[in-house]
Amino acid sequence: MTIQHKNITGADLHEPKGVASATVGKVYISDGSGSGDWEYPPAKAHAEMYITGGTTAHTLAGSSAYSLLNPSGEWTAGVTNILTSTPASGIITLNQAGDYYIDFWANLTTTAIAQGAAYNIKYALDGTVGTRKTTVVKTTNGADKLTLSSSGLVTATANQTLAIHIAGDATSSDEDVTVTEAGFTVLYLGT
């Protein structure tokens, strides 16, 4: 007797192909061509780092150059699953190839320099600074407390690193900023 696969029921059903070697937490994603792959569902892979009560001055690079935002000893690993956060170096490793949602915010205390001086952030993938930037500008000639935030999407290959880089402008380069509070969160969206 021949039974069509679509008519198999109960105890005669079998798990999808590859289930025996699938990693815990992965789901089968169809590729639309009669096959598929085992992948983490969106947001299953995530990582977070944060700064609370930061007091370490971070000196901006000269000539408006971008440098890794890594006030020594200030980052703390937050909730992390599958991705890897490395607070000592201010980076998050994107262990899965695919698309990621990035969210970053920070409260900065500046030095007393000219009103209108700017501070810029960009994300960097494997140390290469991206083109999108967020800028915040001083509102007084004194030491200001500024807040900046940014979010976006990035496509990465497996094991690339992601970090936040900061730069000043012609006035604020070579000056100090102190990141008093910050959050850096990355969510894997899938392929």
Q: How does this structure look, described?
A:
With 191 residues, the chain is an all-beta fold. It folds into two domains: 35 residues, no CATH class; 145 residues, Jelly Rolls, CATH 2.60.120. 0% of the residues lie in helices and 48% in strands. It is built from no helices and 15 strands. Strands 5, 7, 8, 10, 11, 12 and 14 form a seven-stranded antiparallel beta sheet that branches. Strand 10 and strand 11 form a beta hairpin. The mean pLDDT is 92.
Q: Helix- and strand-based class?
A: mainly beta
Helix-strand string: EEEEEEEEEEEEEEE
Total beta strand runs: 15
> What is the number of domains?
2
What CATH architecture of the largest domain do you see? Sandwich
Any idea of the CATH topology of the largest domain?
A: Jelly Rolls
The rounded Rg comes to 22 Å
Please state the average pLDDT score.
92
SS summary, helix count? 0
Distance between the termini: 42 Å
Largest β sheet strand count, sense and barrel closure: 7 strands, antiparallel
Tell me roughly what share of residues is in helical segments.
under 10%
Assign the CATH class of the largest domain. Answer: Mainly Beta
**Per DSSP, what share of the residues sits in E-state strands of 2 or more residues?**
over 45%
Q: What is the approximate shape?
A: elongated
Unreliable residue stretches: none
